[in-house]
Amino acid sequence: MGHSHSHGDTDDSLLSRAELRSRNAVRRRAVVLLSWILAPLAVLTLVAMAFMWPGGGNETPAAGNPYAAAPGASIETGVVQRTATQDCPGSAAGMPASSCFIAYTSVDGGAEVPVVVSPDIIQARGVNAGDKITFLNLSELPGMTGNQNPGTQYVFMDFVRTMPMGLLAALYAVVVIAVARWRGLRAIVGLGGAFAVLAWFILPALAQGQPPLLVALVGSSAIMFGVLYFAHGFSARTSTALLGTLFGLAVTAGMAYWAVDAAALTGTSDHNSYQLLSLTQGMSLSGMILCGLVISGLGVLNDVTITQSSAVWELYELAPHTSTRELFTSAMRIGRDHIASTVYTIAFAYAGSALPVLLMVSLYDQPLMNALTSAELAEEVVRILVGSIGLVLAVPVTTAVAVAVVKSTGRKAAMDKSAGDETAVDKAATTSEPVDMPVG
Questions:
Q1: What percent of the chain is modeled with pLDDT above 70?
Q2: With contact defined as beta carbons under 8 Å apart, do 383 and 347 qualify?
Q3: 209 in the same domain as 94
Q4: How far are the Cα atoms of 73, 76, 105, 111, 133 from residue 70, in angstroms, in the given order?
Q5: Cβ–Cβ under 8 Å, residues 190 and 230
Q6: What is the rounded distance in angstroms from the CA atom of residue 243 to the CA atom of residue 225?
Q7: What total number of domains does the chain contain?
Q8: Looking at 160, 190, 223, which one is the last position of a domain?
Q9: Is 397 found in the same domain as 328?
Q10: What is the reported pTM?
C-alpha cells in the first residue's frame, strides 16, 4: 500500500515536470518563429529612424519663450495673502470707477503687491488666499513708477500647479506599481521612453519638414517595439501582440493618409496654427494632423492586441487539444467584447477632450450633420473613425497569428511528448523494474 502511494506521488510529479517542459518548449519555438518576422522590421525601423533623425545641417527652428517678459518687466511667483473687490487703481479722474478683483500677493514673505486678476479667471475658478500664482511685474517699466498708473503694475498670469500635478503623478505611480508590481514599474519606465521618442524624434522631425506619414510610422513602430517588450518581456505572447499592433498601425496610417486629403483637414481651425506656420519652415499643418491621427490610437491598439494574444495563449493552455477553428472562435468571442467596449472608450475619450468645442458648436443654430462635418469637429470625428477601423481589424489578425503560432508549435511539442510516452512503454515492456508513466 505504501509503495503504491509513493508511486502515485511520483506519477504526479513527473506529469507536472513534463507539462512544464512542454509549455516552455512551445514558448521558445514561438519566439524563434516570430523573430524571423519581427527582427527585419525592427532593423528597418532603426535604419529609417537614423536616416530621418533631426539635426545635421537643417536645425530645428528656435523660438523665444512665449512667457518671457519684455525688457524692464519681470515674471514673479508669490502666494496670495488676501483678496478684495474694489475700485480699479489708477482710474481716470472724473470717470466712473470700475470694479477690479485684486489679489494681494507676497513674494518670499515680502510686502504685499496688488495683482489685478482678469474677469475670466474669476468666473472660471477664482483666486483665493493661499493660492500660489505667477504675475507680471511692470513696476520697473519706464513711465510706470510712482502713482501715474498703479493699476497696471501687477497683472495675474497663471496658477502654479507643480504641487498638485506632482502629487497626482506620484499617486499614479504608486497605484500602478502596487497593483501591477514589477510589470507596472516597467510600463511606467516604458512610457517615459515613449515620450522621449516623441520629444526627440517625432516633434523635431515634423518641425524640420520630414514626411509626416513616414515620421508617424517609424516613430510609432519604435515606440511599440520598446514599450511592449520592455513592459511585457520577450515572449511569444508579446511578439504576437506586437505583430498585430504593427498591422493595425499600418491600417491606421493608410486610412489616415486617405482621410486627411479626402476630408480636407487643413489644420487651420486651431488658434496655434498660424503661429506654428511662422515658427517652422516647410511643415504642413495637414501633415501634422496625419501624424496625430496615427499616434493617437497607439495606446488603445496596444491594449487590444496584448489582451487578445494573452487570451489565445490562456485558452490553449487550458485546452491544448482544442481544434484551430474552435480556438479562433473562442478567442474572437473575447475579442468582440473588447472591441465593443474599446470603441466606446475611444469615442468618449475624444469627446471629453473636445468638450469645449462640442459645447460651442452645439450653441450654433445649424443642422447636426453640418456641425459634425465642420472644421471644428471634423478632425475629432475622423480621429475616432480612423482609430476604430485600425483597432477593429487588428483583433482578428492578432487572433489568427496567435492561433497559428500556438497550434504549430504546440503540435511539435505534442509529438515530442508522444514520442517520450512511447519510449516509456517500450522500456516498461522490456524491464522488470516499475516505470513511472505520465498520464494523459
A1: 73
A2: no
A3: no
A4: 5, 13, 21, 24, 19
A5: yes
A6: 10
A7: 2
A8: 160
A9: yes
A10: 0.73
Please give the grid coordinates belonging to residue 78: 508669490
The answer to whether residue 244 sits within a structural domain is yes
Nearest to 293 by CA among 395, 213, 196: 213
User: Length of the chain in residues, anyone?
Assistant: 440
Query: How many Å apart are CA 265 and CA 262, to the nearest integer?
Result: 8
pLDDT band of residue 416 (cuts 50, 70, 90) is very low
Torsion 103-107-113-118 (CA) sign: negative
**And the C-alpha cell for 358?**
462640442
CA distance 271 to 277: 11
Q: Which residues pair with 84 in a beta bridge?
A: 102
Burial 174-212 (b: 16+ CB within 10 A, else e): eebbeeeeeebebbbebbeebeebeeebbbbbbbbebbb
Pair (135, 176) in one structural domain: no
400 domain-assigned = yes
Mean pLDDT of all residues in 6-31: 56
For the chain, give percent helix, strand, coil, nearest 5: 65, 10, 25
Tell me the per-residue pLDDT of 262-310, one tens digit each, with 9 for 90 and over. 888 877 666 666 677 666 666 777 788 888 888 888 888 888 899 899 8
Q: Which amino acid belongs to residue 205? A: A
Q: Are residues 156 and 179 in the same domain?
A: no
Dihedral sign (CA 245, 251, 257, 263): negative
